[in-house]
Amino acid sequence: MDVQRLVAMANDIAAFFDAESGNAAPEGVRNHLSKFWEPRMRREIIEHLRKGGEGLCPTASAAIEKLAADPSVS
Amino acid sequence: MHAHDHHDLGTPAVKGEPVTLEIDGVSITVPAGTSVIRAAALAHRDIPRLCATDTLKSFGSCRLCLVHIEGRKGTPASCTTEVVPGMKVHTQSEQLERLRRNVLELYVSEHPMGSCPASAGCELESLAAQHGIRESRYAVGTTARAAHMPAAVDASNPYFVADDSLCIVCSRCVRACEDQQGTFALTIEGRGLESRVAASQRQPFFESECVSCGACVEACPTGALLEKSVIAVDQLPERSVRTTCAYCGVGCSLIAEVSADAVTRMVPDRAGRANQGHACVKGRFAYGYATHGDRVTRPLIRERITDEWREVSWDEAISHAAAEFKRIQAKYGRDSIGGITSSRCTNEETFLVQKLVRAAFGNNNVDTCARVCHSPTGYGLKHTLGESAGTQEFVSVQQADVIMVIGASPTEAHPVFASQMKRRLRAGAKLIVVDPRAIALVKSPHVAADYHLRLLPGTNVAVINALAHVVVTEGLTRDDYIADRCERESYEKWRAFISDPKNSPEAVETVTGVPAALVRGAARLYARGPNSAIYYGLGVTEHSQGTTMVMGIANLAMATGNLGREGVGVSPLRGQNNVQGSCDMGSFPHEFSGYRHVSDDATRGLFESMWKVQLGSEPGLRIPNMFEAALDGSFKGLYIQGEDFAQSDPNTAHVTAALSAMECIVIQDIFHNETAKFAHVFLPGSSFLEKDGTFTNAERRISRVRKVIEPLAGFADWQVTMRLSNALGYAMDYSHPSQIMDEIAALTPTFTGVSYEKLDRLGSIQWPCNDAAPQGTPTMHVDQFVRGKGKFHVTAYVPTRERTSAKYPLLLTTGRVLTQYNVGAQTRRTANLAWHSEDRLELHPHDAEARGIEHGDWVGVTSRAGDTVLRVEITDRVAPGVVYTTFHFPESGANLITTENSDWATNCPEYKVTAVQVVKVAQPRAWQRRRQEAAPAEPAVSPN
Questions:
Q1: CB within 8 Å: A1 and B628
Q2: I need a labelling partner for B38 at 20 to 30 A (CA). Which of B101, B621, B847, B887 fits?
């Protein structure tokens, strides 16, 4: 997967939830990624975050951290 | 000529209180407002008529339908006389017979018996024969029109002939063009024997304003307007089959008339609830692609995409495909393959493909071409209202006071519904158009938009927010409705957001390009309705904020109480015939049929129990994700039913690189297409004429598709999928698509009441159809929203990444024309080419002048994704700074320049916003010239 494409997608999702959910935005993004991203995409974005998460906005980063904490994902 | 098996009732049906009357001693009860001629026909006492037909309001010109009514003087025309309680009507008498014979003889004096071809089903000649008339007492000298009109035949239209010499000047064609189609292209000019039907300014039909819908041809009682296909066979049809059109999401009910196992004519079904007896140039006439010589009828395989194709047996092709998929999974893992369902195929076929992927492939890597058009509709409406579908039936528009059309061009893409919409607009409804382009509805005969919000591409959300801002801040919300039906917390949050001055029309004017005063006026008009309805198209969904915009539309409708009854609602105009159905059938990688997530244990358990296999609980790959995975080497095999990625998906270079990286692509289609160039197995598909099944249109209406001719390649698509599944080791055993529908009904709560028996009985059914709604559901969310309380969502405007710059100063947006359809695979293989044989780039005169470009010049169109060359059309339909093209021809390469940007929620591509530069060039690009010169571009096939 093109990780920069995944980063852009995650940031776009975060932009919606930032407006919609305020402080709960990371949970909204995490839930969206769980429901709509295929596991290999989730694994790759988690791996990208672990390498520093370049390009990810704060909400997306927080959401992916939550995702990484889910043992069923990685 | 109406369909041969149609019993014409003379005038249209009306609604009213029951009225009982007596006709020739037969008691009959009909709605008040019904004409006597219709009541008589319903009582099986048909009254002769020539100017009346049941698709048109009465006209009263032919003087044949005269009757006696007890207590009334004279012999009134039954078509213009309404029923009255206790009325006693007599349809036969010596006096009436004498009057009718006299009128018929006058007609026959101008139109001698035997003038029309037998296949025309001439109503005049038939009536005259019934009354024993062989010749006319008035036929002396040169009374026949033919003698006055020696050059009366206009064969300019590709599909029908107009012969003035056979015309009886009944005006049915003129009225059909006005009342049914709403184009007003025809008139009667001249007097007496010189009177004739004229198209536009007495032009040949082809050069006139006529849109070739065929309503005039069907309305004509003689052979004056007649299909060329009917003239060619010169015999009445042997049989008729009711089926459903395979073009756009209107889903017109059609009657295929057949002789010698070939379709001779397609006639709209007057009982069709979606189309109400109307059709368009595509559905009525452009069906010839089904038997075009380009059809692939033998399975093909090849080892590498650089090899020639090799014709093989069905057994070999299926075995090879199955073996390849097994090999790839063994080597790269279970998730390395997937499948694509098609919105062109039936519900049953799409259901089987997703079943094949989930049960036989063992993963959830299934997606559908609806991904690239209306996936944001599903997400947006599900999260706000609770169901991933439009809220109304088409006839609802007749109750609308205000119609808002956003990002759609119904006259081009959904022409039959557009005619219904125009009828309502002519009756006084107000119109708001939100579109970067001046679509035809903005100004056309007897229709003009009250507001045209000509926004810049990519600013939809800013405009919908500004409209809602006006509604909220000017106190135009329906507070009682909101309090009763919507989530209070979500509303309060949204209200605070939308009230912020940053969302005011004045604040966003510089972003959207729409004057604030227009936005305020449109918002007030919509809010005050009282019945306001929104219809939208791909100009809403195909954006990076497509889902946000759908939510914004739902917010606006909820805030103004415009959901849950006739005349209002939120209605997506679906692009293809079965977009709604393919989504309903579980084609998306994250959900089963009925929009239930694969992670839901109870739902998954239901499917596992029925299918006797363990199913995955994780979402699979979407189409664009499949391309990414192919490029990284983890996705290697794909079964594609009826979809042409390489032409229809954005950023062609990216798509073709991904397709080239796969090891086995299996295409199932009726023609070779751009994607087939990257395929290893080609399985011949079947057109809609060759199979049984159902389509679901934009109003959730499930309609039967019935087999008209045998499959050219021997199998319907559902049979091919079944064979592939069996070859993979997962048993499927259906003998008829009705069994697949029974399985769908057993597994899908919104379909539990659907069966072929019920569809045949009711004609069509709008889902949900279950114990709570056994006859279906024309209007959704009547007492409450499907999700319970409606949920408002905050819809902040986030500008797309795609921005104009000095290098790419113009914004490109895309759409369709009436006579072509999507990637053109069907319509390019019909005579519709006569109207539109190439895609053109629309460019505003100011932008053209600044670049030294003239009408008809070739121009290079360059974006950061790629470039192509198109011929230019200079027009002010587009605003300065905006250019527009269609994408019907592969040599245009429209998607070479569109980008990979997509909707945040669904990855629906952002086709509608691409920053480009346009410069004058001398000629098409070399590859385009090669394509044009090579047409028809058939691939090499070696014999067995």
A1: yes
A2: B101
Whether B146 is in a domain gets the answer no
Looking up residue B820, the CATH number of its domain turns out to be 2.40.40.20
Helix axis angle, B347-355 to B717-728, nearest 10°: 10
Domain of B921 in residue numbering reads as: 810-934
Taking an 8 Å cut-off on Cβ atoms, the answer to whether A1 and B597 are in contact is no
pLDDT tens column, A50-64: 999 999 999 999 999
Band (pLDDT 50/70/90 cuts) for residue B937 is very low
The whole-model pTM stands at 0.95
Closest-CA residue of B relative to A15 is: B798
Predicted confidence (pLDDT) at residue B944 exceeds the cutoff of 60: no
CB contact under 8 A, B625 and A41: yes
CATH code of the domain in which B467 resides: 3.40.228.10
Verify whether the Cβ–Cβ distance B796 to A35 is below 8 Å.
no
**Contact status of B694 with chain A (Cβ, < 8 Å):** no
Q: Report how far apart the first and last C-alpha atoms of chain A are (Å, whole number).
A: 16
Instruction: Flag if A36 and B620 touch (Cβ within 8 Å).
Output: no
Q: How far apart are CA B177 and CA A62, in angstroms?
A: 61
Shortest CB distance from A20 goes to which of B365, B544, B793? B793
Q: How far is B384 from chain A (nearest CA, A)?
A: 13
Q: Which residues of B651-687 are buried (b: 16+ CB within 10 A; e: fewer)?
A: bbebbbebbebbbbbbbbbbbbbbbbbbbbbbbbbbb
Whether residue B543 sits in one domain with residue B613: no
Give the residue among B347, B158, B173, B342 at the shortest CA–CA distance from B244. Answer: B347
Q: Is any Cβ of chain B less than 8 angstroms from the Cβ of A39? A: yes
- Return the residue of A nearest to B589 by Cα: A36
A1 to chain B, closest Cα gap in Å: 5
B228 lies in some domain: no
Here the tokens at position B837 are 């044989």
For residues B432 and B535, membership in a common domain is answered with yes
Interface ipTM: 0.96
Q: Looking at the structure, do residues B364 and B379 belong to the same domain, yes or no?
A: no
